[in-house]
Design brief:
Blueprint lengths: L2 H4 L2 E5 L2 H11 L12 H15 L4 E9 L7 E8 L8 E6 L3 H10 L4 E5 L2 E7 L6 H13 L12 E4 L21 E2 L1 H16 L27 E2 L7 H9 L1
Antiparallel strand pairs: 1-3, 1-7, 2-3, 4-6, 5-6, 8-9
Helix pairs in contact: 3-5
């Protein structure tokens, strides 16, 4: 199965060789003498950090390759969401002033803050309510922990493929938020279509070919549209209005 359909979240790297060079120059690897010059080792190193940062939010963090037509495959990391816990804004850590709490604060740095939860003073992180929480965590690890912030003059080193990428296609956009929109029912649309059908078929005496049927294409006429239809009223031509005012 294609990884684009299997994973809930993909972090795709544009130029992984450039990322490897940044990792080798800026990341001090002290454990197990890990070599980051290899793609597999570098991806596994990033996956370990993301697994630590995203624990209790994802069930799988795995290096993958994204196939691009007529181009070299792109290195990526796939995330499999757990469920509602994935988008919780609060990351609760261990109690403060404990070995686990000190390790938590060492990992997250200044991002960690103290919060009293159920009577205990715990190390916590509060994420913003704006974009995807997992995307915020991934960006934090790549930028703050691994120092992979891109040069403003360069292309972004990575981009996210999220499950909500189709949301703009199912959102109702209003041209003017201050103007309330009037919606129409399917019954009104069908009656308007019947009137239009009568008018068009009334032209059969003046047309070389007869109009036998007028069928709608929009899903609004079948009462299956995602959003209700919005009534629009024809406006008089501005030039006609000016002539009327002059007379």
């Amino acid at each position: 199965m294609d990884c684009v359909y299997f994973y809930d979240h993909l972090v795709i790297f544009r130029n992984f060789d450039h990322i490897k060079s940044k990792l080798c120059n800026k990341v001090q690897v002290e454990e197990d003498n890990v070599e980051l010059h290899d793609n597999e080792n570098a991806l596994n190193f990033i996956c370990r950090l993301l697994s630590e940062a995203l624990k209790d939010r994802v069930s799988l963090v795995c290096p993958v390759r994204v196939c691009v037509k007529d181009k070299t495959d792109l290195q990526a990391i796939g995330l499999k969401y757990i469920g509602q816990l994935t988008h919780v804004l609060l990351t609760k850590g261990p109690p403060s002033n404990t070995p686990a709490g000190n390790e938590f604060r060492h990992f997250w740095g200044k991002k960690s803050e103290l919060r009293r939860i159920d009577g205990d003073l715990c190390e916590c992180i509060v994420w913003s309510n704006g974009p995807n929480v997992c995307m915020q965590i991934v960006n934090f690890v790549l930028i703050k922990k691994l120092h992979l912030s891109a040069n403003p003059n360069e292309l972004e080193l990575w981009y996210h493929l999220l499950p909500n990428r189709l949301d703009p296609f199912i959102s109702l956009h209003k041209r003017n938020r201050n103007v309330s929109l009037v919606t129409a029912s399917s019954l009104c649309l069908i009656r308007a279509l019947d009137k239009l059908r009568e008018l068009l078929r009334g032209l059969n005496t003046k047309l070389p070919l007869n109009i036998t049927a007028v069928l709608p294409l929009s899903s609004a006429f079948r009462d299956t549209a995602v959003f209700p239809s919005i009534l629009s009223f024809p406006m008089a031509d501005q030039s006609c209005n000016n002539k009327t005012l002059r007379t």
